[in-house]
Design goal:
Helix content is 41%, strand content 12%. By secondary structure, it is of the alpha/beta class. It has a domain of 218 residues: Rossmann fold (3-Layer(aba) Sandwich). Helix 9 crosses helix 12. It is globular, with a radius of gyration of 21 Å. The two termini are 30 Å apart. It binds NADP nicotinamide-adenine-dinucleotide phosphate. The site of NADP nicotinamide-adenine-dinucleotide phosphate has 31 residues, from helix 1, helix 4 and strand 8.
Length: 400
């Protein structure tokens, strides 16, 4: 489908969003993006830099999206009357990919509620005002909460419990878009835990798999207790080695969603964008151990920055609390509907090699201390430069 009408797109600067931006621009789908200005760059500059990087990677010029500086948590998403008029005249669908990936906050004025619930409401209101009648919404497979057995794509609330506020906020958002009477069609995409690029290892957020890696890395680099064995890490995290988790590479998730956004047949359905082969946590822990032993610099007993186990327990308490619930065994995500629109897009195997590449990327960028570049380091021939922006994934937050 390419009817030359624009898709209004939120969240194009994040991990998944930047891959979606690439894939949709490669397909020449006209895009209008709502982007928050950065501390040092305008919304326009942020998008121009992102598109320029992708042009270097894909080796061709890409069409430029129309950029609106905005923020979902503001009334009218922070857009003025001119912007709203332009959107009304040119956009016929919205792709809501923006979200906060903070795991918990009892205060509903804060994140993840502010963006995931209030922001989604504000985007629906905008769509209603400007007359957009088709919604594509990126949710999460973990709206299933704490379930076992097979989870169907059409199911949402079946009386399940939830692991954290992020999951709850995403359920509320999904319910809101489903019930909004201003849309003719609502299409929902539910990825499981997004890891990096299956080919380059690139990531810009450090949740899920990377949180386990960061804990192993911290143990090795700050606490010389030699407790980095996969088994010790699982014990520390309180994780059942027989549990399996569903990880998906960002490039594949973007390819599937890009297919959905462009397909009339996809409209109105819900899709689990999940891996056919979940990974046993015992395997994940082995990779974490191998990765930190290969890429992290171990503390020595005479290191002046050496910390003791008490420091570790204190500093990692929030993360450990969050991740003990998070790394529970996953249910089986049924993918019948997803395979009907994207069954021909093979999901890359997440093997030791690809996870090691992602681990190397995360450790060499010190989990966000150095800004990631989409252009592979070998191509640029440079070492990562220290970031002037805060890491996008703060300690104590998580995701799915
Ligand atoms: N990561 C996962 O494991 C995972 C798994 C399942 C589902 N998901 C879903 O996938 C989507 C993308 O996640 P991601 O991992 O790519 O997250 P991410 O890297 O943190 O990106 C989030 C995006 O949302 C934007 N955003 C956040 N708050 C906003 C606001 N108030 N107004 C406007 N834009 C805002 C961010 O803009 P800035 O650049 O300005 O911060 C960024 O572009 C989300 O809906 C998430 O819930 C993620």
């Amino acid at each position: 489908m390419n009817n030359h009408r624009y898709t209004l797109f939120s969240g194009s600067t994040g991990l998944l969003g930047s891959y979606l931006l690439r894939d949709l621009l490669l397909e020449n789908l006209p895009l209008a993006v709502i982007v928050r200005p950065g501390r040092k760059q305008s919304a326009d500059e942020r998008v121009a830099a992102l598109v320029a990087d992708w042009e270097k990677v894909v080796g061709r010029e890409l069409p430029r999206p129309v950029v609106f500086a905005g923020d979902l948590t503001q009334p009218d998403c922070g857009l003025n009357a001119d912007a709203r008029r332009w959107i009304s005249e040119n956009c016929d669908q919205v792709l809501n990919n923006a979200a906060s990936l903070s795991f918990r906050n009892a205060d509903r004025e804060g994140e993840p509620w502010r963006t995931n619930v209030n922001g989604t409401r504000s985007l629906i209101d905008l769509a209603r005002t400007v007359g957009i009648r088709h919604m594509h919404h990126v949710s999460t497979a973990y709206v299933c909460g704490i379930r076992s057995g097979r989870v169907l794509e059409n199911e949402l609330e079946v009386g399940q419990e939830f692991g954290n506020d992020y999951e709850l906020s995403k359920v509320e958002a999904e319910n809101m878009v489903r019930r909004a009477d201003c849309f003719d069609t609502t299409t929902i995409y539910r990825p499981s835990i997004i890891v990096g690029d299956s080919q380059t290892g690139y990531t810009s957020t450090y949740h899920g798999f990377f949180a386990a890696l960061r804990i192993g890395h911290t143990l090795l680099t700050r606490v010389a207790i030699g407790a980095t064995s996969g088994r010790a890490l699982l014990k520390l995290l309180g994780i059942d080695p027989d549990a399996s988790k569903n990880f998906v590479p960002v490039d594949w998730v973007a390819a599937v969603i890009a297919r959905g956004v462009q397909s009339l047949e996809a409209r109105g359905s819900t899709f689990h964008v999940t891996h056919p082969n979940p990974l046993p946590m015992s395997f994940v822990a082995e990779v974490v151990q191998e990765a930190v032993e290969s890429y992290s610099i171990a503390a020595t007993p005479d290191d002046p920055d050496l910390c003791d186990e008490e420091w570790f327990a204190e500093n990692m308490r929030t993360q450990l609390d969050v991740y003990q619930r998070y790394f529970r065994n996953d249910p089986v995500f049924d993918t019948t509907q997803m395979r009907s629109i994207a069954g021909d897009i093979p999901c890359p195997t997440l093997d030791e090699d690809s996870l090691m590449r992602m681990s190397k990327f995360a450790i060499s960028h010190d989990f966000g201390k150095y800004p990631p570049s989409l252009i592979p380091a070998e191509a640029e021939g440079t070492e990562p430069a220290e970031s002037t922006e805060p890491a996008s994934s703060a300690a104590g937050s998580g995701s799915a």
